[in-house]
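Please fill in the sequence for the structure shown.

STRUCTURE ENCODING:
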């Protein structure tokens, strides 16, 4: 692993610890049905429990979004990656998509 990649990962770990998705808004109606299409479109081609090895495109084995339980296993890491624009690698999600994910993570 290169020094730059290692440094980035260490900084991300520090940021992730402090990157809580926040409070669940009162009256929230965001459900798995709202976020699952976003994860399916933007995440599960690499982040899926059905994938291993090179099929994951470098995605860490413990971060998956193909089931509700897996998607909510690491809410701070997920929110940090989305908010910083690191994920998805094809480009940042819209503000509305980001907020939908943030709210769902906060309300679970």
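FILLED IN BY: designer on duty
SEQUENCE:
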């Amino acid at each position: 692993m290169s020094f730059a990649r290692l440094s980035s990962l260490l900084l991300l770990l520090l940021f992730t610890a402090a990157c809580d998705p926040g409070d669940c808004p009162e009256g929230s109606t965001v459900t798995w049905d709202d976020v699952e299409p976003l994860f399916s479109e933007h995440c599960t081609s690499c982040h899926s429990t059905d994938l291993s090895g090179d099929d994951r495109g470098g995605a860490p084995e413990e971060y998956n979004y193909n089931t509700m339980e897996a998607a909510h296993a690491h809410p701070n890491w997920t929110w940090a990656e989305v908010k910083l624009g690191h994920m998805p690698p094809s480009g940042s999600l819209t503000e509305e998509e980001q907020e939908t994910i943030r709210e769902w993570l906060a309300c679970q």
